[in-house]
Amino acid sequence: MQKSQTEHLYKILVIGDLGVGKTSIIKRYVHQNFSQHYRATIGVDFALKVLNWDSETVVRLQLWDIAGQERFGNMTRVYYREAIGAFIVFDVTRSTTFDAVSKWKDDLDSKLTLPNGKPVSVVLLANKCDQGIESTATNSGKLDQFCKEHGFVGWFETSAKENVNIDEAARCLVKHIIASENDLVESVESDVITPTLNSFRSNGNCSSCFKS
């Protein structure tokens, strides 16, 4: 008799300054398409991505595209509610968007925690890497240190246009969410999750995704 699959639904926030490419990243990840002419998101938009994580686990990601102009307003508290992970995005061609990353992270941490009081898992995306811009914000050593200091679980250079590292960043985030969820559930449920994590670690080659 075939064993039934376990399904997980995770609310994921995608936040960052206006114009950094949040909508483009989501469209590429969910629909595998790209356009130069997305209209600016107003308020919040949604998308759903279904992952067959392994033979026993299906993961549904509900991606919330939070408008950059929302900045750190009161409404973000409503948008953040019940999220279990996030991407914070900046544009490597505009240093001011990197300068804002720590403010987005601080705002997120102040409004959203897991039931055990710990912060949610957050991956930093250095978007538009196809532009070939070299800057402090794309220095891997400095980004490693920045992420450790600010509590990110990892970072990736991404390009929605060229489809660079978006799937990899999502797998990194889901891996950490599952690990965090293990801390919140009974040990009997961890028997299903542990092989998944070990399988990922044995096959992964991402130096930018920090281990739990």
UniProtKB/TrEMBL annotation:
<dbReference type="GO" id="GO:0003924">
    <property type="term" value="F:GTPase activity"/>
</dbReference>
<dbReference type="GO" id="GO:0045335">
    <property type="term" value="C:phagocytic vesicle"/>
</dbReference>
<dbReference type="InterPro" id="IPR030697">
    <property type="entry name" value="Rab29/Rab38/Rab32"/>
</dbReference>
<protein>
    <recommendedName>
        <fullName>Ras-related protein Rab</fullName>
    </recommendedName>
</protein>
<keyword id="KW-0636">Prenylation</keyword>
<dbReference type="GO" id="GO:0005764">
    <property type="term" value="C:lysosome"/>
</dbReference>
<dbReference type="GO" id="GO:0005802">
    <property type="term" value="C:trans-Golgi network"/>
</dbReference>
<keyword id="KW-0342">GTP-binding</keyword>
<keyword id="KW-0449">Lipoprotein</keyword>
<dbReference type="GO" id="GO:0005525">
    <property type="term" value="F:GTP binding"/>
</dbReference>
<dbReference type="InterPro" id="IPR027417">
    <property type="entry name" value="P-loop_NTPase"/>
</dbReference>
<dbReference type="Pfam" id="PF00071">
    <property type="entry name" value="Ras"/>
</dbReference>
<dbReference type="InterPro" id="IPR001806">
    <property type="entry name" value="Small_GTPase"/>
</dbReference>
<comment type="similarity">
    <text>Belongs to the small GTPase superfamily. Rab family.</text>
</comment>
<comment type="function">
    <text>The small GTPases Rab are key regulators in vesicle trafficking.</text>
</comment>
<dbReference type="GO" id="GO:0016020">
    <property type="term" value="C:membrane"/>
</dbReference>
<dbReference type="GO" id="GO:0008333">
    <property type="term" value="P:endosome to lysosome transport"/>
</dbReference>
<dbReference type="GO" id="GO:0090385">
    <property type="term" value="P:phagosome-lysosome fusion"/>
</dbReference>
<dbReference type="GO" id="GO:0005770">
    <property type="term" value="C:late endosome"/>
</dbReference>
<keyword id="KW-0472">Membrane</keyword>
<keyword id="KW-0547">Nucleotide-binding</keyword>
<dbReference type="InterPro" id="IPR005225">
    <property type="entry name" value="Small_GTP-bd"/>
</dbReference>
